[in-house]
């Protein structure tokens, strides 16, 4: 698919394609052409030109999302290209903007917004080397620290110390880059490049370090907070977090697995949960909430009823919800606003079929993404599911891997899915008849790949043919056995893997020590 380019854009490409000529000629370029030249350089991966454009940026703001997004000159959105060459050139150009004392342009830059960069699975850049969110966090922190060292040692123009640029970024902090980010945040006041954290993700971090660094990020600016995987945050820590820090702009909150476990609740815990619910009610901007893999049986109302703003995204996958929880969700004011819903890991047909379909009918006019993985949906329920999904005309994404459906039932379902006009992404299970007879659901990890791969390929081809015959080649259908692509996990999987091995080793050592004492 080729995107039309204006004559202006074609000229810009020609100009930047000769890097040496473009860099020499920048001094004579009109201010309003810089954004055009930047996008053309980004498309052609002209790192040196990108660096010099940013180093001499003559405008008040530099917004990556807008600069790379669809423009009149070139409609294609390049913000999902996290090309390492381009992004590194951008950030080093920003550092040199501060240091460059001979630029012919007056230094007007006040705001740099890096939050519009989107991390995706498939990259189209020629270098094929990406710079993800973690690496962007690492590089910006490193450049801020280097800048301070240089300014302290060198004889700089007094005007350099008056430069103050707010750099809006989505930070991603783990044990490995913690010290570097910490130093950059601690010295923020002295640095001309001021890190402004709009979204914060922490993984593989001790609670002590998490609490220390989150306070330094300026929580009053924070719109999104993700505490995931190897941060051992439990309910009492969440209460401390909400009591000690105010998040007036927080719109999205993700909590790690096992934050809540109502099975071992005491009267004190019940009161703590009530307090947390009330504190969440003070987050007046909150519209996205993810609490997967916590045990919340019978407590959804206590947590969600204090919320004053309706939720647009709710992930309560594998939270052991009961009928009362589902009834609350179906009848709550959130139901009519839910654009993304994840109820994976609940036996919907057996536990609360009618209540679930009531919830689905309430959110059908706005629902864009529905995830029902490992929900024990069987062939006999497919017609009911089709009936429930029929009003969901805005549905863009439907994920239902891990359900015991036959290839025949999947074909029937796909014939219906073709009719949903906005649908773009479907994640479907390996058909039950591809597995050995007697397989039990949910399928354990050891048995997950033990299916007839040739038969699966034939069925997948038939399902894609159904889409093709309905002129729905725009729909991507796949079976990601081990879950959907997660850019953040992908980028840090080596560190997380090492952490898990270390944890397993420590647990084994404790067990051996205890066993030896018993012996």
Automatic annotation (TrEMBL):
Family to which this protein belongs: Belongs to the PRAME family. LRRC14 subfamily.
InterPro entries on file: LRR_dom_sf, LRRC14/PRAME
Residue ranges the record marks as coiled coil: none
Keywords: Leucine-rich repeat, Repeat
SUPFAM superfamilies linked: RNI-like
GO cellular component annotations of the record: cytoplasm
Protein name: Leucine-rich repeat-containing protein 14B
